[in-house]
User: Fold this.
Amino acid sequence: MKRLLPLLAGLASATPLLAQTPAPPGPDLPRNTSMLDALLHAGPIIIPLFALSIFSVMLVIVYFLTIRRGAVVSSGYMATADALLRKRDYLGLLAVSNRHGEAIARVVQKVLEFTTKNPGADFQQVRDIAETEGTRVASHLNNRVIYLADIGMLAPLIGLLGTVIGIVKSFSALGADLGSARYMQLSKGVSEALINTAGGLAIGIPALVFYAFFRGRAQRLISDLESAVTHIVALLSLQYNKRPERAHALLEDEF
Assistant:
């Protein structure tokens, strides 16, 4: 017992010295990087992907505003056109068509311009003009929607290019004599590859979804346009059928 007392006293005197000794520095912990930092260090391929994302958002907004029934066929214009055609007021209907921006108004405008400039044209020629102009407007409506499909196919391919570039950087880091920095370069290349892949898919998938949505809407509007053109052509055919009857009535009055 007497031998243990000096030993315990020596340990008690050494304890403050141990407490004052600084702890050895530990390894630096990696900082948490935000998504914005990851995008900024994703390589040059992220720039065209960012431009495609902005362009696709703008297209979706424009299509929501323009690919709608009021921009193709409106009930107010059809009622006005019906009344003026029954009165044979072609000049009045032409003036109304010039003030309206609907697709059916452009078709009627082309037909009436041909009719007023060629009063001796038969009904078959008038009908060909109406069908040709209606087909042109429908094709223009379909071609506008295709831009979203192009973005949906192009964005994943650009993202795949970024993936290949990132993988190449990773393998270059494995083959280089960089010491401890090799693993940092390796992780940087893998991160760049995955971010570009995710960016391409994040742009392409919504673009294809909106393309399918607007394509269905465009097909419904084209059907409404065809129905409206058929109605206009039918009214014109009634007016053309009345021409021989009026001419026959005038001949009977003369004799």
Notes: The chain has a mean pLDDT of 77. Residues 181-254 form the longest helix (74 residues).
